[in-house]
Write a structure and sequence with these properties.
It contains ten helices and ten strands. The protein has 237 residues and is of the alpha/beta class. The protein has a domain of 128 residues: 3-Layer(aba) Sandwich (Rossmann fold), CATH 3.40.50. Bound molecules: adenosine-5'-triphosphate and magnesium ion.
C-alpha cells in the first residue's frame, strides 16, 4: 500500500514492446498538482496513457489510490480517475448541457465551476470556441468528482487567460484533495499553480523538484522544449 493517489514505479512504457519511457518513478499525493514537462516526443503522453491504464507497462508498475493497478482505463475511471486530453472529446452535435452530463456529474456542479458556460448551455458544443470547449471538458471531468485527474496539454492553442482559468480550476480541485498529474507546454504558468514537476527528455527524468526550486530554472526548462538534446546534455554536465 502507499499514501499516494497515483504512482509509477520503475515504469518502462512504450509501444509493441519497445520502451520510449524508461524507469519512471513518479508520485502524486492527495491535494497535489504534479507537472510533467519535456520536449516533443520525450514520452509525456506515453507516461500519462500508461498511468491511466490505456497502455500496458513494459516493465515496472502503476499504482492507483495506494494499490498496484493493472486494470484498464474504464475500470480506473470507475474507481475515480479522470483523464482529459487535447482532443476535447466533446460530441459536437450535442448541446453543451448534454456534453456536461456525459461523465455522470451534474450540470449544476459543472456550471458552479465554470459559470461562464451558462449562457451557452443550449448551444451545440461544436459551435463553442476552443477555449469554451476545453472548459466544458474540464467542467464535466471535475463535476464527476474524480479523486485523480490526468490532463494532457489541456491548454493547447488557447489564449493565456483561458490557460490561467483552466489551471486555476485545477488548483481549486487539488485544494479539495484531488491529485492532479498535468502535462503542460505553458511552463511558467504551470509552475505558478503546481506543487512539483518532473522534466522528461528522451523518456528519462532529467530534472525534478518543487515548483519553487524549478521556477528558478524555468529558462532551462523552456530551453529544453526548444532544443531537446542540447538542454539534456547541459543538465547532465
Ligand atoms: N502509437 C504509437 N506507436 C509507436 N510509437 C509511438 C506512438 N505514440 C508515440 N510514439 C513514440 O513515442 C515517443 C514518445 O511520444 P509521446 O507522445 O509520449 O511524446 P510527448 O512527450 O507526449 O510529445 P508531445 O509533446 O509532442 O506531445 C515518440 O518517439 C513517439 O514517436
Ligand atoms: Mg504528448
Amino acid at each position: 500500500m502507499s499514501n499516494y493517489l497515483l504512482e509509477a514505479r520503475q515504469l518502462s512504457a512504450g509501444y509493441r514492446g519497445q520502451a520510449v519511457v524508461h524507469d519512471l518513478a513518479l508520485q502524486v499525493a492527495p491535494g497535489e498538482i504534479v507537472c510533467l514537462f519535456g520536449p516533443n516526443g520525450s514520452g509525456k503522453t506515453t507516461s500519462l496513457l500508461t498511468l491511466a491504464g490505456e497502455l500496458p507497462p513494459i516493465a515496472g508498475s502503476t499504482w492507483l489510490l495506494g494499490a498496484e493497478c493493472k486494470a484498464p482505463l474504464y475500470e480506473r475511471v470507475r474507481s475515480g480517475l479522470s483523464i482529459i486530453t487535447d482532443e476535447r472529446s466533446l460530441i459536437f452535435g450535442l448541446s453543451t448541457r448534454d456534453n456536461l452530463r456525459l461523465r455522470g456529474g451534474s450540470v449544476a456542479d459543472a456550471i458552479a465551476l465554470f459559470p461562464e458556460l451558462e449562457p451557452h448551455l443550449s448551444r451545440q458544443a461544436g459551435l463553442l470556441s476552443g477555449g469554451q470547449q476545453q472548459m466544458v471538458a474540464m467542467a464535466r471531468s471535475l463535476a464527476a468528482r474524480p479523486k485523480v485527474l490526468i490532463a494532457d496539454e489541456l491548454s493547447m492553442g488557447l489564449a493565456p487567460q483561458i490557460v490561467s482559468r483552466l489551471l486555476a480550476s485545477l488548483r481549486q480541485a487539488a485544494d479539495r484533495g484531488v491529485g492532479v498529474l498535468l502535462v503542460e507546454q505553458h511552463v511558467s504558468q504551470a509552475l505558478n499553480v503546481c506543487d512539483r514537476a518532473y522534466i522528461l527528455n528522451h523518456g528519462r527524468v532529467v530534472l525534478s523538484g518543487s515548483a519553487e526550486e524549478l521556477k528558478r530554472q524555468s529558462a532551462d526548462i523552456e530551453a529544453a522544449y526548444l532544443f531537446g538534446h542540447q538542454a539534456a546534455e547541459k543538465t547532465e554536465s
